Amino acid sequence: GRPNAGRAGGRGGAPRGGAGGRGGQRQGRPRISGARIVAYDVLRDVVERDAYANLALASRIRDARLDGRDAALATELAAGTLRSLGRLDRIIELAADRSAADIDARTLNVLRIGAHQLLAMRTAAHAAVHESVELQRLVGNERAAGFVNGVLREIGRSTNEEWDARIAETAKNADDALALRTSHPAWVVRALRDALRAEGSEAELDALLDADNASPRVNLALLEGAGITAEELALVEPDTLDAVGPSPIGLELTGGDPGRAIAGAEERAAIPAGLLRVQDQGSQLAALALVRATPVAEGERWLDLCAGPGGKTAILGAEAVVEGATVRANEVSDHRAELVRNSVDGVLAVAPDTVTVVSHDGREEEAFGCGREGHELYDRILVDAPCSGLGALRRRPEARWRKQPSDLPELTALQTELIDAAVAHLKPGGVLAYVTCSPHLAETRVGVERALKRHPELRELDAKAAVRAAAREDTQPELPGDQLSAQLWPHRHDTDAMFVSLLTREAG
């Protein structure tokens, strides 16, 4: 389950609006680095206020006006702590000899950040302890500063291997020990093991769990119409971009701020605005696989049924310009529909009539453009269904603590309804891509098998072949198993764990 946030009560709370930033130091106190204050504020926002880590980080870094180096430190402190939350809490419990639930929430967050520095970063032990003590004095009960000092010194006396041994000794069983050591809820560990076992790769579980806890590189997508290939752009921008990974339009940011890197590349390579964007390469391949599944005919109509926030829509739109197709992008949320519109600005600047963005419930006829004209059918439909998000744990470190097994029935019911609605609007001979950013079998193979039983007119295509056809020739992804669907993995492909199944409606 989710690590206990600790008691929110107690005296000496943080100042309203956060621990501070540049103006957050108390007079006469030693200066605490802005990066650590930002990390504390982000951790509190996420754990206690259910904020999204990426949004909270961007906001706090901007408000604190951190430079690039401090922004990177704040990101590692916050994101790294969130990824390791379960393990850190157990180590804190063992070092303090008390339950995390019995530690004031502010003090617990200070301990988490300090423990992460001691166990996972190259921060000098004395600096990690000293700044944590000063942070405690700033944001919480000053009387607990000695407690923070003692707990962190106790943590620093043992190595990671020694702490993992203590975790194993006190765990209820082997699964709980593995879950605590790798900072995954036990139910997620079991789900990931089941998904790997289904393709004969159960031995890779440890590698997968470790990959979930690694800080991922930022990936970019260079859309069709940019006038330059990813490999050519990497030659123009050798200090910031590298054309690596399985996606032929994918680039990896080797360092620096993504916004600055994109702006610089657009200027130096004369790339139209909006055609170079941040996007995981697994998402890139999922969208490209739908286009590569079968030959495209001039005038095809494509539908992105659950389009927000629009990354895959942008790829489909750029491909549609080349192939002579059009795209209808639907998103149930008005706010996210606006994000989709923003994401396709670059495509619309080249071909204004290629993409149409609407906002409707994907299970309703309006999403498909049905009206007086009659029943609308599409040649290709992307159902990038709402899911548990277990495939993106490395990029969304808080997600593992927010989902529960009890969430799955509602999600799988929605996925079923979206598939059924899409099938009703798929042309004979058309292709439907069912995509989830989750490897959980209930959201992947189980959903596909049930769809095939409900719709005997459907036949599953070889998604593995489509993904390989979409991939770089020199980086063909390894996709084991007998299933026709394709499952990408962070430990194997350095992508999110994206699942892709391709279904076609038999003609006649």
Short description:
This protein is α/β, with parallel strands linked by helices. It contains 22 helices and twelve strands. The protein is 48% helix and 11% strand.
Characterization of the model:
With 508 residues, this protein is an alpha/beta fold. It contains 22 helices and twelve strands. Strands 5, 6, 7, 8, 9, 10, 11 and 12 form an eight-stranded mixed β-sheet that branches. The chain has a four-stranded antiparallel β-sheet with strand order 2-3-1-4, with helices on one face. The longest helix has 16 residues, at 34-49. Residues 5-17 and 20-29 have low confidence and may be disordered.
Primary descriptors:
single chain, 508 residues, alpha/beta, eight-stranded mixed β-sheet, four-stranded antiparallel β-sheet, 22 helices, 11% strand
Structural class: alpha/beta
Radius of gyration: 24 Å
Shape: globular
Ends distance? 50 Å
